[in-house]
Amino acid sequence: MKQNNSLLIRSIPSIYLWNFFFQKSKSQFIGLLVVLFTFLGTTNNLYSQITQRGIATTATSTTTSITITKPTGVVAGDILLVNLSSRDDINNNNLSDPSSTGWTLIQGSQITQNRRWGAVLYKIATGSEPVNYTFTLDADTNATAGAIVAFSGVDNTSPFDVATPAYLTANAPTTVTATGLTTATPNTAIIMFGVASSNPNWSGWTTTSPGALTELYDVNMANVTAGAAWAIKATTGATGDGTATLTSGQRNGAILVALRPLITAPTNDICSGAINLTSSTTCTTTTGSTLAATDNNETGDCTAGTEEAVWYSFVAVASSHIITVDGGAGIDPVLGVISTCGSTTTPTGGACIDATGDGGIETRTLTGLTIGNTYYIQVYDFFGVNMSNAFTICVTHTVPPTITSLTTPSGCVGSSLVING
Any idea what DSSP says for residue 367? Predict the structure, then answer.
């Protein structure tokens, strides 16, 4: 049984590359670096760009419910997030999380005292959304400020890149702080949501990475205020704590949320979209990746229901070809060849193979091929890690011998035959 020792390409430890150097030739090591940097330069193209949909909508309320208008332009698949800052100034009773049909709580917390409460909820827009949304508040609530903001380009099946930490609260400083996150996906949207007592204004939103945040809204009434700001974090890693500044010191709390971008499947995610390779007498590599590949459970797959594979094809120019896949760091390549998309028929030598481990080289020597026919190659990671897994692939063949001259001075006696190849 293999163990999952795969490493994400974007966080390869230097010791791994050092060991790799001694396991492979210097030229292969340099080739790997070329693959890595070429791949890293194009990886972000697979991620959708998260953008704000319309503008934030705000509202205030002195009752036990609050109604906020839907931002303009929202379409199915967008994510909506509501930030609510509530308070009980009459009875000073404990408050609790708000709710609304179809909305899910991300975080909710008292803000240093039970009579002050902050909460952020979300929902994924459907094809039929109302003009506005009503949120039911705690029965003791008598002051609420809130806002809804919407974003497109978010992975709506798994919208949060990492778990959102609990509110970080403080008694009465002018600086509002939110616990930092460590993102796992490039191009995440980092949003800081803040709530506070009284009616100060917000400014100076920032993190260590991605740096300054653009304010989305600043809404307040006599006893409560709410604000938010955001930016795209192009690289993975720690954000550092988020901070913002209030115009006066108040009890406050804040959280950071990381929205994961939608990852677009590669064009060769299915056999019919296979990328064509040209066979050569020397290995001319093409850089590939299983990033964002999905399991389509196609007929002819090496396995059923477990691989996130990509496909390549080539036209046979000889009766025998060699397929070579060289795995980059963090990918244990599996290689197989079929004769036709949607068929389990494999050419001789085309059965699926996984003879090596991480960073290994897999080869298939195909024989008995029909010149002019197209054959289809499947490549995937044994561990099924649907992240940054790069490899190179090439198709080669041998040029058959050719007769360049034949002399027959007297029948067969004294004849000469020259064969090249």
Answer: B
Radius of gyration of the chain from its Cα atoms, rounded to whole angstroms:
30
Selection from 365, 274, 291, 284 nearest residue 328 by Cα: 291
Give the tens place of pLDDT for each residue, 75-121. 999 999 999 999 998 888 899 999 999 999 999 999 988 789 999 99
Closest CA to 221 of 63, 347, 29, 98: 63
| Distance, CA of 313 to CA of 347 (rounded, Å) | 13
Question: How many residues comprise the chain?
Answer: 421
Residue carrying the six token digits 């307040």: 220
Query: What would you measure as the largest C-alpha separation in the chain, in angstroms?
Result: 122
132: tokens are 């506005």
Q: 């959102």: which residue's tokens? A: 164
Q: Calculate the alpha carbon distances from 417 to 402, 409, 411 in Å.
A: 11, 12, 13
Query: What type of residue is 296?
Result: N
pLDDT per residue as tens digits for the range 8-17: 333 333 333 3
- DSSP assignment letter at 413: B
Residue showing tokens 């994961």: 260
Q: Which of 337, 386, 52 is nearest to 213 (CA)?
A: 52
Strand order in the sheet with 242-246: 175-178, 242-246, 202-206
**What would the pLDDT profile of 210-267 be if each residue is shown by its tens digit?**
999 999 999 999 899 999 999 999 999 999 999 999 999 999 999 999 999 998 888 9
Helix (H/G/I), strand (E/B), else coil: 100: coil
Cβ–Cβ contacts within 10 Å for residue 173, how many? 13
Pairing of strands 286-289, 237-238: unpaired
Strands 275-277, 310-315: pairing is parallel
Joined together, the tokens standing for residue 339 give 């004769």
Q: Global pTM?
A: 0.69
* Amino acid present at 327: G
C-alpha distance from residue 337 to each of 259, 315, 370, 384 (Å): 38, 13, 14, 19
Give how far Cα 359 sits from Cα of 178, 325, 337, Å: 40, 10, 20
Amino acid identity, residue 260?
A: R
